[in-house]
Amino acid sequence: MAILLIAISIFVPPVWYVTVAYILYRLFTRKSRADKYYEDAQTWFTGGELSTGDVNVNKAFHLFAKASELGHAKASYFLGSMYRDGAYVPQNMSMAEMYFELSKEQCFASYNEMFMNEREIKVRANQYT
């Protein structure tokens, strides 16, 4: 969307103001959008605070993935845990490792505390192959 606005604004100068505003909005709300996706995913995954709502794990998974793409470390860690444990997705140690590494890059401290070191990853991966 931003690329289209930039392309149009080259030929229509007044559109440039809208383009700049849109790009700034997307940049400054990136974290809040990631937080919102994560909160919505948690709600769909657990059924809400009182567990009286609908549970939709597929929708939750996609919302966790969106939050992870936007840089939400807890969402990346949660996806890694799902792949590691085979919870609601096929067990895939390489995907788990990828999401755990992404979580580490996004500075989620629990990665270092709760996950395993590289040697244990390889041992676990060999168990399932």
Descriptive keywords:
129 residues, mainly alpha, Serine Threonine Protein Phosphatase 5, Tetratricopeptide repeat, 8 helices, elongated
Please explain how this structure is put together:
By secondary structure, this protein is mainly α. The chain is built from 8 helices and no strands. It has a single domain (31-127), classed as Tetratricopeptide repeat domain (Serine Threonine Protein Phosphatase 5, Tetratricopeptide repeat). Helices cover 74% and strands 0% of the residues. The radius of gyration is 19 Å and the shape is elongated. The mean pLDDT is 75.
CATH class: Mainly Alpha
Regions with pLDDT < 50 over 5+ consecutive residues?
none
Order of helices and strands: HHHHHHHH
CATH superfamily: Tetratricopeptide repeat domain
Main sheet overview: none
Nearest-angstrom radius of gyration?
19 Å
Structural class given helices, strands, pairing? mainly alpha
Number of alpha- plus pi-helical segments: 8
Helix proportion range: over 70%
Q: Can you count the beta strands? A: 0
Q: Please, how many domains?
A: 1
Overall pLDDT score? 75
CATH-assigned fold name: Serine Threonine Protein Phosphatase 5, Tetratricopeptide repeat
Strand content: under 5%
Global outline: elongated
Q: Give the end-to-end Cα distance, rounded to a whole number of Å.
A: 42 Å
CATH architecture classification: Alpha Horseshoe
